[in-house]
Design goal:
The chain is mostly helical. It has a single domain, classed as yst0336 like fold (Orthogonal Bundle), CATH 1.10.3560.10. It has 6 helices and 2 strands. It has a two-stranded antiparallel ribbon with strand order 1-2. The radius of gyration is 16 Å and the shape is globular. The N and C termini lie far apart (43 Å). 19% of the residues are buried. This is Polysaccharide biosynthesis domain-containing protein.
């Protein structure tokens, strides 16, 4: 059995488990960014429920700017109060909906210490699906795809 799927109460503040979570979140971010760098983001499918997630996200957050996410607003008491019901709608739909997942604050930049924040998996899906469908992530392939290939060829 995967140790990360066991109940959190079993671990208290075990640093080795925190390190495993951080590694898993970083690996997920790295894979996702590599996908964005190589494929048209509009063609990416993140879950079997992409259409529902996107539709509900835009109904509940019609003016949410996905190009640059303000972490303080997202995690403020008002932000949490608005996001909580959205996230809970997917509790029995999206596996690991509440897992910590890294999100780029500024969609035009890559993951790094200043441009990464920890969000729930369903928040990541909602924001990244909007970025992909609305063309916000298109700059990643243009700006980072060629550089990646040039680096490999050199």
């Amino acid at each position: 059995m995967d140790v990360l799927s066991r109940p959190a109460e079993e671990f208290e503040n075990d640093q080795s488990v925190e390190a495993m979570w951080a590694m898993k979140a970083f690996e997920h971010a790295e894979i996702y960014f590599n996908l964005l760098s190589s494929v048209d983001a509009k063609l990416l499918h993140l879950t079997p429920y992409d259409d529902s997630i996107y539709q509900i996200f835009r109904e509940e957050f019609p003016n949410f700017d996905v190009s640059v996410v303000n972490e303080n607003e997202l995690k403020s008491p008002a932000g949490k109060a608005k996001w909580r019901p959205f996230c809970e709608r997917f509790k029995n739909v999206i596996e690991d909906y509440s897992f910590g997942t890294l999100l780029r604050a500024d969609a035009s930049k890559e993951y790094d210490e200043q441009n990464s924040m920890l969000v729930t998996r369903i928040q990541f899906y909602a924001i990244e699906l909007a970025r992909n469908r609305e063309g916000v992530n298109d700059s990643i392939r243009k700006n980072f795809g060629c550089k990646k290939i040039e680096t490999e060829v050199s």
